[in-house]
Amino acid sequence: MDTYLFDSSLKLIEQKSExxxxxxxxxxxxxxxxxxxxxANFDPNRKTREIKSFSYKVSRGGGxxxxxxxxGNFTAKEKWSNAAGDYVWDISFTTGSEIKVKSDExxxxxxxxxxxxxxxxxxxxxxxxxxxxxxxLLPQNFLTIVGAVQPKIQKTKGTKIVDDQEYAIKTYSIKxxxxxxxxxxxxFKGPKEVVQMLQFPDGSMGAFFAPKNRVSQLxxxxxxxxxxxxxxxxxxxxxxxxxxxxxxVCPVVAWTPSFFEFKDEALYLxxxxxxxxxxxxxxxxxxxxxxxxxxxxxxxxxxxxxxTPIADxxxxxxxxxxxxxxxxxxxxxxxxxxxxxxxxxDIVLVGQYQxxxxxxxxxxxxxxxxxNLISHFTVKNESDVAGEVKLYDNPGGKTITWLIVExxxxxxxTGRKYNYIRMATIDPTAKxxxxxxxxGLKTSKEQKDDYFLHPVVPIIVHDxxxxxxxxxxxxxxxxxxxxxxxx
Length: 487
Description:
Layout: E1 2-6, E2 12-17, H1 22-35, E3 50-59, E4 67-81, E5 86-103, E6 106-115, H2 119-123, E7 129-131, E8 134-137, E9 142-149, E10 153-156, E11 159-162, E12 165-173, E13 179-188, E14 192-199, E15 205-211, H3 215-218, E16 230-236, E17 242-249, E18 254-255, E19 259-263, E20 266-274, E21 291-298, E22 301-309, H4 310-315, E23 317-318, E24 334-341, E25 347-355, E26 358-367, E27 373-379, E28 388-393, E29 400-410, E30 417-427, E31 432-433, E32 437-439, E33 451-453, E34 459-462, E35 465-472, E36 478-484
Parallel strand pairs: 23-27
Antiparallel strand pairs: 1-2, 3-4, 3-8, 4-5, 5-6, 6-9, 7-8, 9-12, 10-11, 12-13, 14-15, 15-16, 16-17, 18-20, 19-20, 20-21, 21-22, 24-25, 25-26, 26-27, 28-29, 29-30, 30-31, 30-32, 33-35, 34-35, 35-36
């Protein structure tokens, strides 16, 4: 093993070589992988854990099937995974007794189940184990199930009367077996369906309900139905109690909040939506997106919800001066995208456009703290392989470094991406984007080879600088580059 030590100017000050056994070299390799992950800490002397516990598998009801709870035994063995660069659980489950979940002798179709999971499982990222239409949970005290209740239908000559759409919340105590602790319900005048769920750090669950047009199937009276854009947001705790309940009018008919972020006890959500036909319902509008919707919830209330039409992104587009054309792709068809909330409250969506499975140009949608679009920053991609996008606040906080990790090629056998760096500075106030600088690829005659980022530790954030770590394609020459943020 060769070890190199560089000073702050990237000057080599020490080099040493040593021979290792196979076990020692593997331990060093694992340590290197774990250092690249802030939440991982590999310890070769660590005694891995094995946990056995009672568990509960909730099989979601579908069609004419009842939701079932199967009580069984859960075994989790901890092990290190080189692929994940972290400790993972090797999980097995054996089924025991089971019960059917009903409400007033009617079938319940479970939408989600939550439980107060032990902290040990949370630390290693285990909340639940999903397998097909079942979810396995390990509650300490409570197991809560939320599901739609099959409506009652009264048939008469030529007509039929259908009850309101009802949802049941059933909470079980697991202290001495599985015992029903409480049951309550809530109802909508017309049918509403869960269109998105998200889990909070404390284990509680948030769910968005959108109106679903099933009048012709179920016989609901259209005069009592909610309008297509009247949504409901519920947040339910692991003990089955309602934390938040908000009825709101969405600016568009169909909206899926695909991205969410927690910041200072507030919940921010973003996602594409459609208002192509205001008379239709969520499930009647598919792949016809024409708005980006931003929403903020705090202290049990909706602070705001905005919808930006596609035309605004074209009007507010900012690209590098050297780039002649605009962006290539669907402004609302994005991948590798993240929602980020800056310290000043500004809202940023950063990622990459996609069209029919192809990775296209890069995007940065910049909104003010009230969810209004300020600018649409975009730059052409140089590879048809999906890249990775990062944002760094520059010193002073007025500008942002926009960093793109883009692959020049991918090794078909190993799957390794040969990545290089592209960087530019965004000035949100001036609505300006400067030219991108490229690091790694040959940009002058003086540079003899291309250099590519290390696959495990590619970027080191050091004070106000970024250090890129890599080598040439043959791994014969080490390459380092140190770049000040904002320059």
